[in-house]
Design a protein that fits this description.
Elements: H1 8-11, E1 30-36, H2 82-97, H3 106-121, H4 124-133, H5 136-156, E2 164-165, E3 169-170, H6 176-190, H7 194-205, E4 210-211, H8 226-229, H9 242-255, H10 262-269, H11 273-288, H12 292-297, E5 301-305, E6 308-312, E7 322-323, H13 324-330, H14 337-344
Antiparallel strand pairs: 2-7, 3-4, 5-6
Length: about 350
């Protein structure tokens, strides 16, 4: 599966970053996560907390002055006060796990969750203050999220922040239940845990949101190199099809020793212990509570650049790299509030 990897995944889900390569497995270019890109976290804001009409039962931070994406959403805001952040995080986590939460609210809730953890992962002191305010059951959840993100950041913290955005299309992922069925089918066929497959899909392409080819020529939702896909017993069908790619990922992990030691299998997927630890943190979240899948499924694609942690929404489409400044001039809603502020000054 991967070979030179860490490309799309890191850039994409804001989980990973650019760089890293494995000798044989899939290769990602972004990082992620989910993945791939040298991802960083969103910026905090002191914007007033109001209850958007779309979420009548839950107050999410909002500011009517912020620019909006085409769907009417703005970049999620994070309160400065640790206690307020903790209250917001608990409310979001609970709503994402509540089957009574309307489906149309889940994208905003998932993105809010994602940005909170991205912000906290970059600021250990602030993260510790927020975690101290969390009820005990949620501290472990937060710790898995923060440790996973910090592993990815450590993988690419030394890289220069990009001045341009990648030539990708960001597309809607396959339906959540459909992907879950693919993970479970692959797990039943190979013995590789479905939670691990879901975590890889998140990290590599934001569960299929990134439609693009990595710098290493890795392709599809699980970021396979065509040469790896072509190996006997690995790829079958369409490298870009979620079902086929997820089944192939499970087979590849078995080939690389994943049934004996999943860490060994993940090393084959991406030659980095940090990558493996990060994936296993997300897998642990799903194993501890499968309802955590709803939040992860609704994470957006973020890319850390010279202008901050940019959000690339569904509909982003570039056939060639585009300078960050040129993109933000057209779509300022993609930038976190503070990194956007200077651009609004005369």
């Amino acid at each position: 599966m991967a070979m030179p990897r860490l490309g799309i995944a890191l850039l994409a889900s804001g989980l990973l970053a650019i760089g890293c390569s494995s000798r044989e497995g899939p290769a990602s270019q972004a990082s992620s996560a989910t993945a791939g890109n040298e991802a960083t976290t969103g910026t905090a804001s002191t914007a007033p907390v109001e209850a958007p009409a779309a979420l009548p039962g839950l107050a999410l931070p909002t500011d009517p002055a912020l620019p909006r994406q085409a769907d009417g959403r703005h970049y999620p805001l994070v309160p400065q006060d640790p206690a307020a952040t903790a209250r917001l995080l608990v409310a979001v986590e609970e709503a994402l796990r509540d089957p009574a939460t309307p489906a149309e609210q889940l994208p905003r809730l998932g993105h809010q969750q994602q940005v909170i953890y991205r912000v906290l992962s970059r600021d250990p002191q602030r993260a510790a203050a927020v975690q101290a305010q969390l009820p005990q059951p949620w501290r472990g959840v937060a710790q898995h999220h923060l440790e996973a993100r910090r592993e990815f950041l450590a993988m690419h913290g030394h890289h220069r922040r990009p001045t341009s955005l990648p030539a990708w299309r960001i597309i809607p992922p396959a339906p959540a239940e459909e992907l879950l069925a693919h993970y479970r089918k692959a797990a039943a066929a190979t013995g590789i845990d479905w939670e691990v497959l879901a975590a890889i899909n998140l990290v590599e392409s934001g569960m299929g949101r990134i439609d693009g080819v990595s710098v290493a020529n890795a392709q599809g939702p699980m970021q396979f190199l065509p040469t790896t896909w072509a190996q006997a017993g690995v790829g079958a069908g369409n490298i870009r099809d979620p079902h086929d790619a997820i089944q192939a990922a499970a087979r590849y992990l078995v080939r690389r020793g994943g049934l004996q030691d999943i860490r060994k299998g993940l090393w084959g997927y991406n030659n980095s212990d940090r990558y493996g630890r990060a994936v296993l943190h997300y897998a642990a979240l799903l194993r501890d509570d499968p309802r955590a899948y709803t939040g992860l499924y609704h994470w957006e694609i973020h890319v850390h650049t010279e202008a901050g942690d940019l959000w690339l929404p569904v509909g982003y489409a570039q056939t060639r790299p585009i300078p960050v400044n040129a993109y933000l001039a057209r779509l300022p809603a993609s930038a976190p509030p503070r990194s956007r502020a200077p651009q609004l000054q005369p």
